[in-house]
Amino acid sequence: MNEPIPASIFPAPEAVPEAWRLAVPVDQRSWLCGGELRTWTGLTQPVLSPICHPGPSGAERAVIGSYPLMSAAESLQVLEAASRAWDQGRGPWPTMPVEERIHHVAAFSARMQEQRGEIVKRLMWEIGKNQVDAEKEFDRTIEYIRDTISALKELDRLSSRFVIEEGVIGQIRRSPLGVVLCMGPFNYPLNETFTTLIPALIMGNPVIFKPPKLGVLLFEPLLAAFRDCFPPGVINTIYGDGATIITPLMESGRIDVLAFIGTSRVADILRRAHPKPHRLRCVLGLDAKNPAIILKDADLDLAVKECVLGALSFNGQRCTALKMIWVHAEVCDLFLEKLSAAVAALKCGMPWEPGVQITPLPEEGKTGRLYEYIRDAEERGARVINPGGGSVQGTCMTPAILYPVSAGMRLYTEEQFGPLIPVASFSEIGEPLHYISESSYGQQVSLFGNDAKVLAGLIDPLVNQLCRVNLNSQCQRGPDSFPFTGRKDSAEGTLSVSDALRVFTIRALVAAKENSANQGIIREIVTERTSRFLSTDFIF
Ligand code: G3H
Asked: Which of 185, 191, 273, 473 could form a disulfide with 250 if both were Cys (CB 3.0 to 4.6 A apart)?
């Protein structure tokens, strides 16, 4: 049974284990512009941790530092720096041989690894991610960089040749697009940001990077490495309120690619601010409301295990989280009983405590908004079926299972992004299928069952509604070599190690009629290695 969360869950500062104390305050004042680390002297934004300490009037969020609150003037300075690095595609970075760009990124990755401990600790304090998941986020990002380098080598090898078609000789390569604005989400501030930033950079695009609102300080240990490993202006950072600093960038019309992972509402505002929409490429990872469907022959223990992971890893704050569970009426009572028991066994605590799964929530006012979802569902006939579910202490909330959730309740359609598990039962499979086709989102689904024929009959319609059907397992992004995307309001563009290299580039080619004069010119260029594009150099 879920016990209400005791006030003692939050430690006094001196009770935080030595190894996990942050050297506070982390007052970040550096920002990177045009290859220089500049010092900010203007307004700042305090950073409140989701981790609280006991205070005179209850749990109080720890103040762990601050970061610059910049203005449009600084936005325009980073824009100028990135545009100079691009220099209409003639800058040293966009014209650099691929092999050299790879060396720069590899050098950065080596410097980044030196900062693992500090970045992991800041992830835990800034967004409340538990130690195991914070370490996983860091290590997965390093692997992503390594795999990106391998994928680029492979891509370049395939492009290091000529093709001859219909009497025309051609060489086709992928060329960078221009200045990229990268903005990642708070739930995977490092990993998801770098799954766009690294491919954008390595393909020759200069980048302006704005960290998410939550999860800013963890990037500070990387600023010197960015400065040292890349030519001036290739990577620039900007901090502050999105409306103030991002709007002028978009309105300038000089952003060529918007790589944004967040809500479709914000993505729409940003895109609309750009005066030349056809020149703007958007790479977007947006909202999702992934359902699970539990068929009557499903292995319920397995389904419960995967649904708990799917709905509650990092407190349900994943775009791929299971956010609505449909269970066949014949097994619904048993499923709910097992689900309640599994949820009651989860440990709630501070991110450094061994085995902890439920941790403090970083968004301001989040427990209040989650409570509103519960109240709305209860008013419309659902109830919290796990005793103690939904109890709140400061920034912590125990997971709540709500049943039966139905059309008209906010939880039926809205993305809760927190530890709430809405459950509905069905007698006809048409009910969850209708739910999926009516949904605004189209990322993934989890199907639990054992009859191959029944599953096959569901896979075919579902792959035309969503982008990934997970059999007997939770929804997830990985492995990172698999395509990650969504239909409807869930995404634009596809990300994976190799797809990301494509989305930040466009195919360009050199072509010539096949005659001896042209053959001679091409031969001379290639032998004397006077072009970086027209080249048969092979990267080992
Ligand atoms: O928040 C969305 C993430 O891309 C989810 O990644 O499925 O590996 O947790 P994950």
From this structure: 273
